[in-house]
Amino acid sequence: MQPNLTLAVLSEADWAKIRATPYGEPWVSDAPHVVLLPADLQASVIVKGFASSGRRASGSTRAALEAAGVRFETAPYRLNDLIGYHEIGHVIVGDCGLEQTQRWFNEMLATYVAYAFMRERRPEDARAFDVLMRLNAETLHPSFRSLNDFETHFQDIPGDNYGWYQAMFYSRVVAVYDREHLGFLDKLRRGGIVAGVQYQSPAHLLKRLEQISPGFERWANLMRQDAN
Length: 228
Fold this sequence. Notes:
It contains eleven helices and three strands. The protein has helices spanning about 10-20, 45-55, 60-65, 75-95, 105-120, 125-140, 145-150, 160-180, 185-190, 200-210, 215-225, and strands at about 5-10, 25-30, 35-40.
C-alpha cells in the first residue's frame, strides 16, 4: 500500500485554527488526508494526561517499559508519536475498502494495520506500544466500558476513558494478529465485513466477527466486566 497523505506538525496556535480538539491528540482528515501531530510535545494533551495516570503504574509495568527501551520519563512522548501510526492506519483501512460504520471496529482496524506495520517493520515500536497500552489498561478508570457505550456516547467519552477503550481494542488486535496476521483483513472481505455495511448493534457485528475469528464475544464480555 502507498497511502496518499500529508503530515502536518503544528504549533498550538496553528492547531487551533484547524481543530477544536485538545492540542496534541493525533488526528487524520478525510481525503485529501492530512495527519496532524504536535510540534510541542510538552503542551500535548497526551503528555499532560500521562502525568496523572503514570503515577499509578505498577512496578512491573515500569520495568517492562525499561525492558522495551523506553525510559519512564520519556514514555508519554513516545506514546504521542506511536498514536500517529494509528491515524495512518485509518487511511490504509479506507484504501483497503474496510472502513466500518461501527466506530469501535473502525478504531480497532486502524490499530490493527498500525500494529501489523510495527510488528513487520519496527518491532521495537511494537514492544513499546505493547507496554504503553498495558499501562493505559492498568491506570485509567473508565465510566463507559461497553461497545454499546462507545457507539452511543462517543462524543461524551472523556479523554482518559477513550484511552482505556483504545487499550482494550489493542488487546484484541494483538490476540488476533498473533493468530491471523494480515490474513485477517482478507477474511473480513470474504465475510462481507467491508465498507458501508450497516449493523443492527455491536452485538450483531460481534456475532459475525466470531464466525471469522473466534474470541470477539468473550473479549467484549470481559471488557464490560473490567474492574478498573
